[in-house]
DNA sequence: CTGAGCATGTAACGAGTTACATGATTCC
DNA sequence: GGAATCATGTAACTCGTTACATGCTCAG
Protein backbone atom coordinates (compact mmCIF):
# COMPACT_ATOMS: atom_id res chain seq x y z
CA UNK A 1 0.00 0.00 0.00
CA UNK A 2 1.41 3.33 -1.07
CA UNK A 3 0.15 6.82 -1.74
CA UNK A 4 -1.43 5.78 -5.04
CA UNK A 5 -3.41 3.06 -3.28
CA UNK A 6 -4.94 5.50 -0.83
CA UNK A 7 -5.65 8.08 -3.49
CA UNK A 8 -7.63 5.47 -5.42
CA UNK A 9 -9.50 4.36 -2.31
CA UNK A 10 -10.15 7.94 -1.31
CA UNK A 11 -11.44 8.96 -4.72
CA UNK A 12 -13.73 5.95 -4.76
CA UNK A 13 -15.44 7.20 -1.60
CA UNK A 14 -17.05 9.82 -3.85
CA UNK A 15 -18.71 6.96 -5.74
CA UNK A 16 -17.85 4.17 -8.21
CA UNK A 17 -15.58 5.15 -11.06
CA UNK A 18 -13.64 3.90 -14.04
CA UNK A 19 -9.91 4.55 -14.22
CA UNK A 20 -10.58 7.47 -16.50
CA UNK A 21 -12.93 9.01 -13.99
CA UNK A 22 -10.36 8.49 -11.27
CA UNK A 23 -7.91 10.31 -13.48
CA UNK A 24 -10.32 13.22 -13.77
CA UNK A 25 -11.04 13.38 -10.06
CA UNK A 26 -7.33 13.42 -9.33
CA UNK A 27 -6.48 15.90 -12.07
CA UNK A 28 -8.69 18.66 -10.71
CA UNK A 29 -7.56 18.31 -7.13
CA UNK A 30 -4.50 16.66 -5.63
CA UNK A 31 -3.04 16.08 -9.07
CA UNK A 32 -2.17 19.77 -9.01
CA UNK A 33 0.63 19.22 -6.57
CA UNK A 34 1.18 15.45 -6.69
CA UNK A 35 0.97 14.08 -10.20
CA UNK A 36 -0.15 10.51 -10.89
CA UNK A 37 0.26 9.12 -14.39
CA UNK A 38 -2.89 7.68 -15.92
CA UNK A 39 -1.24 4.29 -16.20
CA UNK A 40 -0.91 4.20 -12.42
CA UNK A 41 -4.63 4.74 -12.08
CA UNK A 42 -5.22 1.82 -14.44
CA UNK A 43 -2.81 -0.51 -12.63
CA UNK A 44 -3.56 0.30 -9.02
CA UNK A 45 -7.28 -0.57 -8.89
CA UNK A 46 -6.45 -4.07 -10.18
CA UNK A 47 -4.10 -4.57 -7.22
CA UNK A 48 -6.74 -3.30 -4.81
CA UNK A 49 -9.28 -5.72 -6.25
CA UNK A 50 -6.85 -8.57 -5.58
CA UNK A 51 -6.52 -7.29 -2.00
CA UNK A 52 -10.31 -7.19 -1.56
CA UNK A 53 -10.39 -3.44 -0.95
CA UNK A 54 -12.16 -2.64 -4.20
CA UNK A 55 -14.85 -4.37 -6.28
CA UNK A 56 -14.79 -4.50 -10.01
CA UNK A 57 -17.75 -4.66 -12.36
CA UNK A 58 -17.03 -5.36 -16.00
CA UNK A 59 -19.25 -3.84 -18.65
CA UNK A 60 -20.93 -6.41 -20.90
CA UNK A 61 -20.02 -6.00 -24.54
CA UNK A 62 -18.19 -3.07 -26.09
CA UNK A 63 -14.81 -2.44 -24.52
CA UNK A 64 -15.76 -4.42 -21.42
CA UNK A 65 -14.65 -1.46 -19.40
CA UNK A 66 -14.17 -1.82 -15.67
CA UNK A 67 -15.92 0.22 -13.03
CA UNK A 68 -14.55 0.13 -9.50
CA UNK A 69 -16.19 0.68 -6.15
CA UNK A 70 -14.77 0.64 -2.65
CA UNK A 71 -15.56 -2.26 -0.30
CA UNK A 72 -16.06 -2.12 3.46
CA UNK A 73 -12.53 -3.46 3.87
CA UNK A 74 -11.39 -0.67 1.62
CA UNK A 75 -13.08 1.96 3.76
CA UNK A 76 -11.49 0.40 6.79
CA UNK A 77 -8.05 0.47 5.20
CA UNK A 78 -8.49 4.12 4.29
CA UNK A 79 -9.67 5.06 7.78
CA UNK A 80 -6.74 3.18 9.34
CA UNK A 81 -4.32 5.06 7.14
CA UNK A 82 -5.93 8.37 8.08
CA UNK A 83 -5.52 7.49 11.75
CA UNK A 84 -1.84 6.55 11.39
CA UNK A 85 0.80 9.09 12.30
CA UNK A 86 2.35 10.64 9.21
CA UNK A 87 6.08 10.15 9.38
CA UNK A 88 7.17 10.83 5.82
CA UNK A 89 8.98 14.03 5.07
CA UNK A 90 7.38 16.26 2.47
CA UNK A 91 9.31 16.13 -0.79
CA UNK A 92 9.49 19.29 -2.85
CA UNK A 93 10.85 18.32 -6.25
CA UNK A 94 11.53 21.64 -7.87
CA UNK A 95 14.01 21.68 -10.72
CA UNK A 96 14.18 25.46 -10.58
CA UNK A 97 15.39 25.30 -7.03
CA UNK A 98 18.14 22.83 -7.99
CA UNK A 99 19.25 25.20 -10.71
CA UNK A 100 19.28 28.12 -8.31
CA UNK A 101 21.47 26.15 -5.95
CA UNK A 102 24.06 25.63 -8.66
CA UNK A 103 23.85 29.27 -9.71
CA UNK A 104 27.62 29.82 -9.55
CA UNK A 105 27.94 27.60 -12.61
CA UNK A 106 25.38 29.56 -14.63
CA UNK A 107 25.64 32.68 -16.73
CA UNK A 108 24.00 35.73 -15.07
CA UNK A 109 21.39 35.97 -17.83
CA UNK A 110 20.45 32.33 -17.24
CA UNK A 111 19.77 33.00 -13.58
CA UNK A 112 17.65 35.98 -14.43
CA UNK A 113 15.73 34.01 -17.02
CA UNK A 114 15.19 31.20 -14.55
CA UNK A 115 13.81 33.63 -12.00
CA UNK A 116 11.45 35.21 -14.53
CA UNK A 117 10.21 31.80 -15.71
CA UNK A 118 9.62 30.50 -12.23
CA UNK A 119 7.93 33.68 -11.15
CA UNK A 120 5.51 33.52 -14.08
CA UNK A 121 4.86 29.85 -13.64
CA UNK A 122 4.01 30.06 -9.95
CA UNK A 123 1.96 33.20 -10.40
CA UNK A 124 -0.09 31.52 -13.12
CA UNK A 125 -0.71 28.52 -10.94
CA UNK A 126 -1.70 30.64 -7.96
CA UNK A 127 -4.11 32.63 -10.11
CA UNK A 128 -5.57 29.36 -11.34
CA UNK A 129 -6.16 28.23 -7.76
CA UNK A 130 -7.90 31.51 -6.99
CA UNK A 131 -10.30 30.96 -9.85
CA UNK A 132 -10.83 27.36 -8.93
CA UNK A 133 -11.67 28.30 -5.37
CA UNK A 134 -14.29 30.77 -6.49
CA UNK A 135 -15.84 28.09 -8.70
CA UNK A 136 -16.02 25.22 -6.26
CA UNK A 137 -16.55 27.15 -3.03
CA UNK A 138 -20.23 26.28 -2.95
CA UNK A 139 -20.08 22.54 -3.58
CA UNK A 140 -16.66 21.33 -2.38
CA UNK A 141 -16.29 20.01 1.14
CA UNK A 142 -14.39 21.73 3.92
CA UNK A 143 -11.24 19.58 3.60
CA UNK A 144 -10.97 19.99 -0.13
CA UNK A 145 -11.13 23.74 0.31
CA UNK A 146 -8.46 23.58 2.99
CA UNK A 147 -6.20 21.57 0.71
CA UNK A 148 -6.69 24.15 -1.99
CA UNK A 149 -5.93 26.91 0.50
CA UNK A 150 -2.58 25.38 1.36
CA UNK A 151 -1.81 25.02 -2.34
CA UNK A 152 -2.63 28.67 -2.78
CA UNK A 153 -0.54 29.85 0.15
CA UNK A 154 2.35 27.74 -1.09
CA UNK A 155 2.19 29.11 -4.63
CA UNK A 156 1.92 32.71 -3.44
CA UNK A 157 4.93 32.24 -1.19
CA UNK A 158 7.04 30.87 -3.99
CA UNK A 159 5.78 33.49 -6.45
CA UNK A 160 6.78 36.15 -3.95
CA UNK A 161 10.21 34.61 -3.44
CA UNK A 162 11.09 34.73 -7.12
CA UNK A 163 9.72 38.26 -7.41
CA UNK A 164 11.85 39.45 -4.50
CA UNK A 165 14.78 37.65 -6.00
CA UNK A 166 14.28 39.39 -9.35
CA UNK A 167 14.24 42.76 -7.58
CA UNK A 168 17.39 41.80 -5.74
CA UNK A 169 19.10 40.87 -8.99
CA UNK A 170 18.29 44.33 -10.32
CA UNK A 171 19.71 46.06 -7.27
CA UNK A 172 22.72 43.77 -7.03
CA UNK A 173 23.50 41.98 -10.32
CA UNK A 174 25.58 38.82 -10.19
CA UNK B 1 20.21 12.71 -17.93
CA UNK B 2 17.86 13.41 -15.07
CA UNK B 3 17.87 15.45 -11.87
CA UNK B 4 20.23 13.01 -10.15
CA UNK B 5 22.75 13.40 -12.96
CA UNK B 6 22.87 17.16 -12.59
CA UNK B 7 23.02 17.01 -8.83
CA UNK B 8 26.09 14.79 -9.08
CA UNK B 9 27.70 17.06 -11.67
CA UNK B 10 26.85 20.14 -9.65
CA UNK B 11 28.20 18.75 -6.40
CA UNK B 12 31.40 17.75 -8.16
CA UNK B 13 32.00 21.39 -9.11
CA UNK B 14 32.90 21.90 -5.43
CA UNK B 15 35.76 19.44 -5.93
CA UNK B 16 36.38 15.70 -6.42
CA UNK B 17 34.40 13.40 -4.17
CA UNK B 18 33.55 9.81 -3.41
CA UNK B 19 29.93 8.72 -3.45
CA UNK B 20 29.84 9.03 0.30
CA UNK B 21 31.04 12.59 0.13
CA UNK B 22 28.43 13.35 -2.51
CA UNK B 23 25.88 11.92 -0.14
CA UNK B 24 27.07 14.31 2.56
CA UNK B 25 27.09 17.34 0.30
CA UNK B 26 23.54 16.55 -0.79
CA UNK B 27 22.30 15.73 2.72
CA UNK B 28 23.14 19.14 4.15
CA UNK B 29 21.64 21.13 1.29
CA UNK B 30 19.17 20.13 -1.41
CA UNK B 31 18.61 16.77 0.24
CA UNK B 32 16.45 18.68 2.71
CA UNK B 33 13.69 19.10 0.20
CA UNK B 34 14.56 16.60 -2.51
CA UNK B 35 15.85 13.32 -1.09
CA UNK B 36 18.28 11.14 -3.02
CA UNK B 37 18.96 7.63 -1.76
CA UNK B 38 22.61 6.79 -1.22
CA UNK B 39 22.36 3.99 -3.76
CA UNK B 40 21.50 6.56 -6.43
CA UNK B 41 24.66 8.46 -5.63
CA UNK B 42 26.64 5.25 -6.04
CA UNK B 43 24.99 4.31 -9.35
CA UNK B 44 24.79 7.66 -11.06
CA UNK B 45 28.52 8.58 -11.16
CA UNK B 46 29.24 5.29 -12.95
CA UNK B 47 26.80 6.28 -15.70
CA UNK B 48 28.35 9.73 -15.97
CA UNK B 49 31.80 8.17 -16.31
CA UNK B 50 30.49 6.10 -19.21
CA UNK B 51 29.16 9.32 -20.77
CA UNK B 52 32.52 11.07 -20.35
CA UNK B 53 31.14 13.75 -18.04
CA UNK B 54 33.00 12.52 -14.99
CA UNK B 55 36.43 10.99 -14.37
CA UNK B 56 37.02 8.17 -11.97
CA UNK B 57 40.18 7.45 -10.00
CA UNK B 58 40.36 4.17 -8.17
CA UNK B 59 42.28 3.96 -4.90
CA UNK B 60 45.11 1.43 -4.95
CA UNK B 61 44.73 -1.28 -2.32
CA UNK B 62 42.21 -1.35 0.51
CA UNK B 63 38.63 -1.07 -0.70
CA UNK B 64 39.74 0.34 -4.05
CA UNK B 65 37.30 3.15 -3.47
CA UNK B 66 36.40 5.45 -6.34
CA UNK B 67 36.82 9.19 -6.36
CA UNK B 68 35.04 11.18 -9.02
CA UNK B 69 35.79 14.53 -10.61
CA UNK B 70 33.94 16.54 -13.23
CA UNK B 71 35.35 16.78 -16.76
CA UNK B 72 35.15 19.77 -19.11
CA UNK B 73 32.34 18.00 -20.95
CA UNK B 74 30.64 17.60 -17.61
CA UNK B 75 30.87 21.32 -16.88
CA UNK B 76 29.50 22.02 -20.31
CA UNK B 77 26.57 19.65 -19.77
CA UNK B 78 25.80 21.32 -16.46
CA UNK B 79 25.97 24.81 -17.93
CA UNK B 80 23.71 23.77 -20.81
CA UNK B 81 21.16 22.40 -18.38
CA UNK B 82 21.27 25.63 -16.37
CA UNK B 83 20.63 27.60 -19.56
CA UNK B 84 17.65 25.46 -20.59
CA UNK B 85 14.15 26.66 -19.81
CA UNK B 86 12.67 24.79 -16.87
CA UNK B 87 9.38 23.27 -17.95
CA UNK B 88 8.73 20.71 -15.22
CA UNK B 89 6.01 21.40 -12.73
CA UNK B 90 7.11 21.42 -9.11
CA UNK B 91 5.92 18.30 -7.31
CA UNK B 92 4.95 18.61 -3.67
CA UNK B 93 4.61 15.13 -2.31
CA UNK B 94 3.06 15.67 1.06
CA UNK B 95 1.23 12.74 2.61
CA UNK B 96 -0.32 15.02 5.23
CA UNK B 97 -1.96 17.04 2.51
CA UNK B 98 -3.42 13.89 0.94
CA UNK B 99 -4.86 12.93 4.29
CA UNK B 100 -6.33 16.37 4.78
CA UNK B 101 -8.03 16.12 1.40
CA UNK B 102 -9.76 12.90 2.44
CA UNK B 103 -10.71 14.39 5.80
CA UNK B 104 -14.38 13.46 5.47
CA UNK B 105 -13.37 9.82 5.89
CA UNK B 106 -11.40 10.45 9.07
CA UNK B 107 -12.43 10.71 12.70
CA UNK B 108 -12.30 14.30 14.02
CA UNK B 109 -9.52 13.40 16.48
CA UNK B 110 -7.46 12.01 13.63
CA UNK B 111 -7.68 15.29 11.76
CA UNK B 112 -6.68 17.22 14.81
CA UNK B 113 -3.77 14.88 15.46
CA UNK B 114 -2.67 15.19 11.85
CA UNK B 115 -2.70 18.96 12.12
CA UNK B 116 -0.69 18.93 15.34
CA UNK B 117 1.88 16.52 13.88
CA UNK B 118 2.31 18.46 10.68
CA UNK B 119 2.53 21.74 12.53
CA UNK B 120 5.29 20.42 14.79
CA UNK B 121 7.15 18.79 11.97
CA UNK B 122 7.24 21.88 9.75
CA UNK B 123 8.06 24.14 12.65
CA UNK B 124 10.99 21.93 13.62
CA UNK B 125 12.29 21.96 10.09
CA UNK B 126 11.94 25.72 9.76
CA UNK B 127 13.79 26.22 13.06
CA UNK B 128 16.51 23.93 11.76
CA UNK B 129 16.88 26.05 8.64
CA UNK B 130 17.16 29.18 10.76
CA UNK B 131 20.03 27.66 12.69
CA UNK B 132 21.67 26.38 9.56
CA UNK B 133 21.53 29.78 7.97
CA UNK B 134 23.22 31.39 10.94
CA UNK B 135 25.96 28.77 10.77
CA UNK B 136 26.76 28.91 7.08
CA UNK B 137 26.03 32.56 6.38
CA UNK B 138 29.72 33.45 6.31
CA UNK B 139 31.04 30.73 4.02
CA UNK B 140 28.14 29.64 1.78
CA UNK B 141 27.70 31.27 -1.61
CA UNK B 142 24.87 33.59 -2.55
CA UNK B 143 22.83 30.95 -4.40
CA UNK B 144 23.03 28.41 -1.64
CA UNK B 145 21.74 31.01 0.78
CA UNK B 146 18.92 31.89 -1.58
CA UNK B 147 17.94 28.23 -1.86
CA UNK B 148 17.89 27.99 1.90
CA UNK B 149 15.80 31.13 2.09
CA UNK B 150 13.13 29.65 -0.15
CA UNK B 151 13.16 26.49 1.96
CA UNK B 152 12.66 28.62 5.01
CA UNK B 153 9.84 30.67 3.54
CA UNK B 154 8.15 27.49 2.39
CA UNK B 155 8.39 25.82 5.79
CA UNK B 156 7.13 28.90 7.63
CA UNK B 157 4.17 29.15 5.27
CA UNK B 158 3.20 25.55 5.85
CA UNK B 159 3.80 25.80 9.59
CA UNK B 160 1.50 28.80 9.64
CA UNK B 161 -1.16 27.02 7.63
CA UNK B 162 -1.40 24.13 10.07
CA UNK B 163 -1.38 26.50 13.01
CA UNK B 164 -4.24 28.52 11.57
CA UNK B 165 -6.04 25.31 10.80
CA UNK B 166 -5.66 24.12 14.39
CA UNK B 167 -7.13 27.40 15.63
CA UNK B 168 -9.98 27.03 13.18
CA UNK B 169 -10.66 23.50 14.43
CA UNK B 170 -10.95 24.89 17.96
CA UNK B 171 -13.38 27.60 16.90
CA UNK B 172 -15.36 25.33 14.61
CA UNK B 173 -14.88 21.63 15.40
CA UNK B 174 -15.68 19.07 12.70
C1' DC C 1 -17.95 9.53 -43.45
C1' DT C 2 -13.77 11.11 -41.68
C1' DG C 3 -10.72 13.29 -38.66
C1' DA C 4 -10.02 15.08 -34.00
C1' DG C 5 -10.14 14.38 -29.57
C1' DC C 6 -11.85 11.44 -25.78
C1' DA C 7 -11.35 7.06 -23.37
C1' DT C 8 -9.22 2.56 -22.24
C1' DG C 9 -5.72 -0.25 -21.78
C1' DT C 10 -0.79 -2.57 -21.96
C1' DA C 11 4.32 -2.90 -22.48
C1' DA C 12 8.82 -1.54 -21.86
C1' DC C 13 11.92 0.92 -19.64
C1' DG C 14 14.05 3.86 -16.31
C1' DA C 15 14.09 5.72 -11.60
C1' DG C 16 13.66 5.14 -6.78
C1' DT C 17 13.51 2.26 -2.53
C1' DT C 18 14.80 -1.30 0.55
C1' DA C 19 17.55 -4.77 1.95
C1' DC C 20 21.72 -7.08 2.18
C1' DA C 21 26.71 -7.56 2.76
C1' DT C 22 30.92 -6.29 4.45
C1' DG C 23 35.22 -3.43 5.26
C1' DA C 24 37.24 0.30 8.06
C1' DT C 25 37.50 3.13 12.19
C1' DT C 26 36.72 4.62 16.69
C1' DC C 27 35.57 4.39 21.30
C1' DC C 28 34.94 1.92 25.53
C1' DG D 1 39.29 -6.90 21.51
C1' DG D 2 34.38 -6.26 20.93
C1' DA D 3 30.55 -3.18 19.81
C1' DA D 4 28.97 0.60 17.53
C1' DT D 5 29.11 3.52 13.86
C1' DC D 6 30.96 5.17 9.56
C1' DA D 7 31.74 4.08 4.78
C1' DT D 8 31.30 1.48 0.40
C1' DG D 9 29.05 -1.11 -2.58
C1' DT D 10 25.43 -4.33 -4.92
C1' DA D 11 21.00 -6.82 -5.69
C1' DA D 12 16.25 -7.24 -5.83
C1' DC D 13 12.21 -5.26 -6.22
C1' DT D 14 8.67 -1.73 -6.65
C1' DC D 15 7.16 2.38 -8.53
C1' DG D 16 6.66 5.84 -12.03
C1' DT D 17 7.11 7.46 -16.83
C1' DT D 18 6.81 7.13 -21.64
C1' DA D 19 5.35 5.12 -25.57
C1' DC D 20 2.34 2.39 -28.05
C1' DA D 21 -2.11 0.62 -29.64
C1' DT D 22 -6.67 1.06 -30.55
C1' DG D 23 -11.73 1.66 -29.75
C1' DC D 24 -15.37 5.10 -29.28
C1' DT D 25 -17.98 9.55 -30.14
C1' DC D 26 -19.15 13.61 -32.11
C1' DA D 27 -18.64 17.77 -34.96
C1' DG D 28 -18.23 19.29 -39.52
Average of per-residue pLDDT values of chain A: 95
Text of the CATH class of the largest domain in chain A = Mainly Alpha
Give a count of the beta strands of chain A, DSSP E runs of length 2 or more.
3
Give the number of helices of chain A. 7
**Helicity range of chain A:** 55-70%
CATH architecture of the largest domain in chain A: Orthogonal Bundle
- Please report the two chains with the greatest interface, counting residues with C-beta closer than 8 angstroms to the partner's C-beta: A-B, 61 and 62 residues
Instruction: Assign the CATH topology of the largest domain in chain A.
Output: Arc Repressor Mutant, subunit A
Residue share in β-strands of chain A: 5-15%
Main β-sheet description of chain A: 2 strands, antiparallel
Q: Identify the strand order in the major beta sheet of chain A.
A: 1-2
Structural class of chain A: mainly alpha
The unreliable regions of chain A are: none
Q: What is the multimeric organization of the chains shown?
A: homodimer
CA-atom Rg of chain A in angstroms: 21 Å
Spell out the CATH superfamily of the largest domain in chain A.
Winged helix-like DNA-binding domain superfamily/Winged helix DNA-binding domain
Would you list the SSEs of chain A in sequence order as H and E? HHHEEHEHHH
How far do the termini of chain A sit from each other? 48 Å
Amino acid sequence: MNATSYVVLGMLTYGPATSYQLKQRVAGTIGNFWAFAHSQLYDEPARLVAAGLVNQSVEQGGRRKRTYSITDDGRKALADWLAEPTLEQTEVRDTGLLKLFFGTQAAPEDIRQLARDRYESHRARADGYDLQRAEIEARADRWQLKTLELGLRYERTVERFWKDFLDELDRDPP
